[in-house]
Amino acid sequence: MDILEILLSASFWTAAIRIASPLIFATLGELICERAGILNLGIEGIMVAGAFAGWMAVYSGTGLWMGVAVAMAVGMLFGLVHSLLTVPFGLSQHVVGLGVTLLATSLTYYAYRLALPEVTSPPKIDAFQPFEIPLLSELPLIGPALFSQTPLTYLAFILVGVVTLVLYRTPLGLALRAAGENPSAVAAQGLSVTGIRMGAVIVGSGFMAVGGAFLTMSAFDSFFFEMVNGRGWICIALVVFGAWKPGKALLGAILFAAFDALQIRVQQTPLGADIPYQVFLMTPYILSILALIVMSRRAEVPAALMVPFNKGER
Amino acid sequence: MRLEPVANPSIWRTTLPPAIAIASTVVVASLLAMAAGANPFSVLGLILKGAFGSKFALLETLNRATPLIFTGLSVAVAFRARLWNIGAEAQLYAGALITVVLGTGMLQWGAFALLPALAISSMLAGALVLLVPALLKVRFGVDEVVTTLLFNFIFLLFISMLLEGPLKDPMGMGWPKSERLIAEARLPRIVEGLRLHWGFGLALIAAALVWVIERRTTLGYEMRAVGLNREAAGFAGIPVNRVLIKTALLAGGLAALAGFSEVAGLKGNLTLDLSPGFGYTGIIVAMLALLNPLAVVAAALFVAGIFVGADSMSRAASVPSYLADIMLATALLLMVLAILLTRFRVVRE
What we know:
In chain A, 70% of the residues lie in helices and 0% in strands. Chain A has 14 helices and no strands. Chain B has a domain at 65-299. The longest helix of chain B is centred in the middle third of the chain and has 30 residues, at 111-140.
C-alpha cells in the first residue's frame, strides 16, 4: 500500500530522474569508450574531478555553463592521459584505469585542500535551478518528473539522442563501432584506429566529468569528499545492462535511479524503520550485480573490447 | 607510431625508463609541493625523514607495510592469472570480521591454538568472499572487475551494520566498534618493547610461500599459463576454470590475512576505519612489484614509506598528505609505461 502510494507520487519520479541524470552522462561516456574498444576504469575518479572542477569554477566566479565546460575539459584531460597509455602503448586497461581513478581523485582532494585550506563545511554555489517547460510541465505525473528538471537533466536526455544518432547514423559512429568490433577492418579503410579510440576515450571522459559536475552543480550545491561514492562503478554495470546501446542504457539508468529513490522513501515508512539503514544503502550495489548476472547471457560485448590494436600485427 | 619488440635490450634500455619514471614522479611531487607554497626539497626531505629517519619512523613504516604486503600478494596472485580482483578491501574486512567474531571470547583457547585458528578462519572467510565473483565469472561470464568493486561497498555496509548491531561493543560509548580481542588472540611483538608485531613476520612468510607456490608447484605453473593465454592454456589441457577458482581462493585468503593481522596485531578491535584503502593500494604495490611475490615486500615498504612520510610531512609543512596518493598514482602510471619501454621500442611510421 505504502509502496504503491510512493510509486504514484510525482515527487518520487522527479527524484528518480534527478538521480538518473549524472548516471546518464557517465554511462554514455563509458559506453562511447567501450564501443571503441576501451574499458575506462578511470570513470570514478574522473567523476570526482568533474564534480570538483565545475563547482570550483562557478565558486570562483564563472557562469554555470562555463563551469560545465571546465568540468568537461578536465575530464577530457584525464581521458587524454588514459587514452595515451592504453591506445598507442596498449597498456593494461585495468591498471591504467584504476591508476587514472586514483590520480584524478587524489589530485582533486589535493586541490580542494589547497583552495580551501581551513573550511569545515564546503561553501555553496548558486546551482542550476529547475526550469519548467511551458505546458508540458503541467502534465500529470510526467510533467513534474520530466519537464520540471534542471537544464543539465534536459542536456542528459538530449545527449542520449545525439549519441544514438552519431553512433548509428554517421560515418564517424560506424568507424567508432568498427574500432571496437574489428579494428583491422578500420585500418584497412585507411582510418586511424588509434585516432578514433583516443578520440572516443577523450570525449567519453568529458561526459563522465559532466556527470560528476551534475552532483555539485545541480543535485547539490557544494562539493564533498566521497560524494561520487561508487557511482562510476555502477555506470560500468549500467553499460553492460544496457547491452552497449544508449537507449537501453538510459532505461537502465532510470530503472536503477527509481530503485534508489524508492529505497530512500521506504526507509522512512514504518516498514523501513525495522530494517537497518545499511540494507537500503546496499541495494543499489546488489541490484547492479544482479543486473550483470541477468544480462550476462545475452550481452553483445564489443568483440575487440580490451584488445589493444597494433598496426601491422595480426 | 608502432611498438617493436627489442630482441637484446641494452643495459640502458632496461634501466633508464624506470629511472626516468621515478625521477618524473619526484618532479611532479615537487611541482605540487611548490603549488602549495612549500619548498620542494624540504618537503621531499620531510617525507624521507618521516618514513625512514628514526627508529620510530621505521617501525611505523614496517607496520604500515604489513597489510600492504598481504593485499599486494593477493593482487599479484590474482593478476598473474588475469583474475582482476579489485576486491581485496572486502576480503580484508572479511578476515577482520572473523577475527573479532571468534577472538573476543567465543574461543577460549591458548594463544598457540587460537592464533592459527584465527588466521586460518580469516583466510577461509576471505576466500569465500572472492569465491562469489569468481564463480559468477566462471559460470555466467560476469566481469569480475565490476563485481569485486561493488562487493567492497556492499561488504563495508555489512560491517557497518554489524558494528551498529550484534557486534557493537556495549562499553563502546555508542561508537560503532567491536569488543576488544582477548589477550590470547593478540599477535605478540617480534621484539619486546618495539612496536612491531608478528603480523609482519607472517607477511614475510606469506611472500616466501607464494613465491614457492608460483615458481615451484603445478598450480603456480597453471596460474601463469592461464594468465599468459587462457585459450592456449585450455587447449593444452589445463582446467582453466578450476585454476581460476583456486587462484581466487588463494588471493581472497591472502587479502583476509591483512585484516587478521591489523586487528590481532595492531588495533585489537574492529572499526569502520580499519583500512584506509589497503585493498586498493595493494594493486599499486603488486604492479610496482611486477607481480613478483618477493618484490611485493620491497614495493610495500616503498609505498608504506611514502604514506607514513607524507603524513609526518603534512604535519610539519602545510602540504596536504594527499600528495602521497598523487605520487603513487603517478609512479604507477609511469612505471607500467616504463616497463613496456624496456622491452619495446617506439617506431615512427
